[in-house]
Design goal:
85 residues, 2 strands, single chain, 9% strand, mainly alpha, two-stranded parallel sheet
């Protein structure tokens, strides 16, 4: 977060949030978006990125499986204390 604060010009109150989904959800989303022989490379890259992100110390993790963008956004804003519970 120090790098983010410097990039934004000083003292920034930033909150890290990790949006998560199970493997089946991620595979389904990628297969709807990507086509052709490159799909397997996209899936492999996604799994590697998920492993790296899972290893991070992020206090706020929000599961996105089966949820609407509005519901996810409401939880994110509440968790970041931008909305009342």
């Amino acid at each position: 977060m120090d790098g983010l604060s410097r990039a934004l010009g000083g003292d920034v109150d930033a909150t890290a949030v990790l949006l998560t989904a199970d493997d089946a959800t991620v595979d389904n989303r990628l297969r709807r978006r990507e086509f052709g022989p490159a799909i397997e490379a996209h899936l492999a890259r996604s799994r590697r990125a998920a492993d790296e992100l899972d290893a991070l110390d992020v206090a706020i993790r929000i599961a996105t499986d089966g949820r609407t963008p509005t519901d996810i956004a409401r939880q994110l804003l509440t968790a970041a204390q931008w909305l009342d519970g």
